[in-house]
Structure to design on (184 residues):
């Protein structure tokens, strides 16, 4: 299928807006960089504002990269986008982006990653992991609120908690350096 330049620009903008928000402190310069999307197949439904990228999907813009088997981007009547990335290597969708003003990266993965631009809510389902610099959270469900910069991590799907010693939430917080001194 051959897409008109307007359609390609719309696809690229939608995909970027959907995926870029998980990193609240993302590299601001990325917003001015071109969006590149590679996939084996693209389906465009302009009437319903749904765009589906399938097969080895790779989205890049500056330092931002997203890899998945499938990326579905939809837009509501007010222009807000919602995206769902699923599958990928090892069954996990993955993103990575440099943090603003730091030599650190934010990385995340899950069997399904959803982002809602209206609420600035990013969710990682099944085998979720988000790493920011050297700090990391893991759980079956991770919710990141970009507006409040808060996390919710649980050991069950869809924010449920399953009483169990296995499959518990894991958090690693590294000590921070003070005055250039190495951590204790």
């Amino acid at each position: 299928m051959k897409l008109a330049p307007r359609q390609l620009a719309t696809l690229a903008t939608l995909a970027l807006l959907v995926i870029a928000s998980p990193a609240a402190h993302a590299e601001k310069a990325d917003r001015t960089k071109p969006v590149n999307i590679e996939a084996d197949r693209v389906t465009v439904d302009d009437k319903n504002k749904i765009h589906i990228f399938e097969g080895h999907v790779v989205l890049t813009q500056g330092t931002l990269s997203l890899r998945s088997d499938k990326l579905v981007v939809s837009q509501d009547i007010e222009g807000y986008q919602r995206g769902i990335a699923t599958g990928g290597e090892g069954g996990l969708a993955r993103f990575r982006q440099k943090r603003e003003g730091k030599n650190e990266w934010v990385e995340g993965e899950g069997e399904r990653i959803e982002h809602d631009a209206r609420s600035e809510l990013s969710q990682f389902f099944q085998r979720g992991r988000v790493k920011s610099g050297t700090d990391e959270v893991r759980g079956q469900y991770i919710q990141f609120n970009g507006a409040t910069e808060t996390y919710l991590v649980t050991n069950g799907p869809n924010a449920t908690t399953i009483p169990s010693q296995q499959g518990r939430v894991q958090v690693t917080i590294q000590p921070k350096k003070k005055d250039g001194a190495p951590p204790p």
Notes: The chain has one helix and twelve strands. Residues 137 and 171 are 4 Å apart (CA to CA).
